[in-house]
Write the structure tokens for this entry.
Amino acid sequence: IAAEVWARIQASNFPARAGALADEITRSAPHLVGLQEAVLYHIQSPGDAAAGGQTPATTVAYDFVQLLLDSLQARGMAYDIVSEVTGTVVELPVFTGAAPFPFDDVRFTDREVILARSDVPVSNPQGAVFAARIDLPIGGAGGPLLSQRRGWASIDAEVNGHAFRFVSTHLEVQSVAPIQMMQGAELIAVATASPLPVIMVGDFNSAADGTQTLTYANIVGAGFQDVWHRGGDPGYTCCHAEDLLNVAPELDQRIDVIFLRGFRASEAGSIGARVQLVGDQRNDRLSSGLWPADHAGVIAWLRLPPPAVAAQ
């Protein structure tokens, strides 16, 4: 199974897809970008895990974030990693059939990452994994347990005189709704404790139409505003086929959301001036037929009135 997954990862050609993602970012030049599943793969060849060895793989095979940053730089766009948290880490042997050592070891590291445009003042990077998590047996029942760790990252930023906290997250999938909702409760507690207004983005794995888990409703109930406002457009963001080669879009749920909380009441009618999806149309595909990612991206341009001027 590990060999099949690794082959699929290689076939998905992230170096090329990083260019397509960089094109999407370049066109809108957002001040901040939240990245989920910002994966880092290390490889050890030949590996030792199949024989009981524990030497970690250290050769970088794919660093999704660095590939994206390099692609952005090639387009004249300067972004930096400003907050990062490491989630699931697992290393497995992958059968290659090569004599005399037929296994490589592949180390998977999942990360939640925030990028900031180089002209955006930022401070106070924070992040953590959720206490609520699931343990999955590797290779089926009876196999060694893998702790699936998800989390959040945040940064304080100032744009056009507005200071706010930017939070990026990835919650657990719908099939383990109780764990996801506990993660959502942790996230709400962290975000509502912010002394600054909050912009929260991520893959919440909870459909905005209420057909899946209660997490989306719980976030809205905690005072967060969903910026999607295009009436009649469901704004589906998930999911393309696993191999990313579906010809027509197969998106049928909106689980990637941008939320706001804590901005002045007088600004409420002015927030979310424009919202759009990227990576959701046929012409967004690469020439190879691959989609840039399995989810569509969400971009919001937030229109806020000038900051209040203190009385003299």
In short: The mean pLDDT is 92. The first strand starts at residue 32 and ends at 35. The radius of gyration is 20 Å.
